Amino acid sequence: MEKIFLEVEQRDELGKSQANNLRKQGFIPSVFYSQGKKTQTIKIAQGQLLRLIHQHRIENIVINLKIVSKALKSDKKDKVYPCLIKEVQYDPVKGDIIHVDFNEISLLKTVKVNVPVAAKGEPIGIKQEGGSLEHILWEIEVECLPADIPKEIEVDVSQLKIGDDIHIKDIVVAANIKVLNDPEAIVLSVAAPMKEEAVEASMEGEAGQEPEVIKEKKEVPAEEGEEKEEEKGKEKGKDKGKDKGKDKEEK
């Protein structure tokens, strides 16, 4: 396994405003969590961290953290700690890295990390049947010693036909690596192509849809209207007759 080193400095600047000042100066405020020891606040040169990110997938690699103390003048006295990145915080607007947490690890104890899945080959279902490869799981969680963490897990998909799936249980890994995902979980699948007729019908259906129009009240035929008017007139006449009768009785 390639050894990766990252040099950082101890920092005394604490608080939100101090952290913002550090970022303006080109540093990323960070924290180093050491096993059974006091947590240390550190800072990393932004350019150094970005170079590391461009060269490696930093979430699952062992980083040898070299913490430089301001009080120490000799680099020989600076300690190196093997660690994994615990968390990376990003600016919600700009997307820049604004904070990193490191966890010290023991090279003799197993760790749990997520490893990316890499599909290798072109499925038969794509070449001959026009299907498409669907990537269901992009990462697989494994447990192993830090030195045995794979860069990626390759999965051969060249023999997949339409409707074929690759499950966790189908993936072969080294004996010193334990996969923690559900064995029945689907990792990769080849789906059938969409039929052109179905796509065209769907598009025509969407294009042919018209906005709802408020229905106008139905016109009543003239004859029916006249009959109703006559009935209303008779009812009014009856009502008037009743009113006159009441008036006479009152008088």
- What is Rg? 37 Å
Proportion in helices: 25-40%
How many beta-strand runs? 13
Shape: elongated
Instruction: Give me the strand/helix succession.
Output: EHEEHEEEEHEEEEEEHH
Question: What number is the mean pLDDT?
Answer: 80
Largest sheet: 6 strands, mixed, barrel
At CATH level 2, the architecture of the largest domain is Beta Barrel
Going across the biggest sheet, name each strand in turn. 1-3-2-6-5-4
Instruction: Count up the domains.
Output: 2
Uncertain spans: 222-227
Strand percentage: 25-35%
- The computed structural class is alpha+beta
Summarize the structure in words.
The protein has 251 residues and is an alpha+beta fold. It folds into two domains: 1-105, Ribosomal Protein L25, Chain P (Beta Barrel), CATH 2.40.240; 107-204, Ribosomal protein L25, C-terminal domain (RNA Polymerase Alpha Subunit, Chain A, domain 2). Helix content is 26%, strand content 32%. A six-stranded mixed β-barrel has the order 1-3-2-6-5-4. The termini are far apart.
List the defining traits of the structure above.
Ribosomal Protein L25, Chain P; 2 domains; alpha+beta; RNA Polymerase Alpha Subunit, Chain A, domain 2; four-stranded mixed beta sheet; 251 residues; elongated; 13 strands
